[in-house]
Amino acid sequence: MTHLSRRGFVTAAAGSLLVSCGSHGGDRAQGTHMTPRPAAAPSKAARSHSVPVRLRIAGIGVDTPVMRLGLAPDGTVQVPPITAHDQAGWYQNSPTPGQTGPSVILGHVTVGAYGDGVFRRLDRLRRGDEVTVRLENGTSADFTVTSVRTVAKAEFPTEAVYGDVDRPELRLITCGGPRTGDGYRDNVIVFAALRTTLH
């Protein structure tokens, strides 16, 4: 598995928000031209940690498998498919949960004709709420929500979300705010910090 340079990761991940918040029917065409193809660079640290396979957020009733998301052929970041059994997706070029840095998990708020998405209640989370990520090796990483922000996509805080941090953190991202003709105006971003060591 290859991993992006920090600059490539920030650029690609920021663009993915525009894609994941496209039309409620799941059309990825919205915003794909805004994401350049990032340069890839290997990362030994990320490969040495177990990947996430399940996400649980008891406070809003989320208990979902986690799929891996990479890059689409056009160089944009993939998003979870629009399906009846919606699930969250971990961007595999971000740190694994529990590793130093911001691990990024994306999910839909709606999934077209199938109704509500897995992150439909993400904006209801509050500071102090708990998030648990189960890893492939059987351990878990427990996070505590530090803040929840709803921001206009035009004002997305790229550096705050994807920039370097000196501890393990988690970002949960979906769409929010009023509906527009091709999706949603805003993004909902949950910031969380590791609460315990892996167990």
What features would you describe in this structure?
With 199 residues, this protein is mainly beta. Helices cover 12% and strands 36% of the residues. The strands form 2 sheets. Strands 3-4-5-6-9-10-8-7 form an 8-stranded mixed barrel. A two-stranded antiparallel ribbon has the order 1-2.
Topology:
Blueprint: E1 3-4, H1 6-20, E2 40-41, H2 44-47, E3 52-57, E4 62-69, E5 88-91, E6 101-106, E7 130-135, E8 140-152, H3 158-162, E9 168-180, E10 183-194
Parallel strand pairs: 4-5, 6-9
Antiparallel strand pairs: 1-2, 3-4, 3-7, 5-6, 7-8, 8-10, 9-10
Summary keywords:
199 residues, mainly beta, Sortase, Chain: A, 8-stranded mixed barrel, two-stranded antiparallel sheet, 3 helices, 12% helix, disordered N terminus
Q: What's the end-to-end separation, in Å?
A: 25 Å
> Strand content of the residues, in percent?
35-45%
Oligomer: single chain
Class derived from helix and strand content: mainly beta
Q: Describe the sheet with the most strands.
A: 8 strands, mixed, barrel
Average pLDDT level: 79
Number of structurally distinct domains: 1
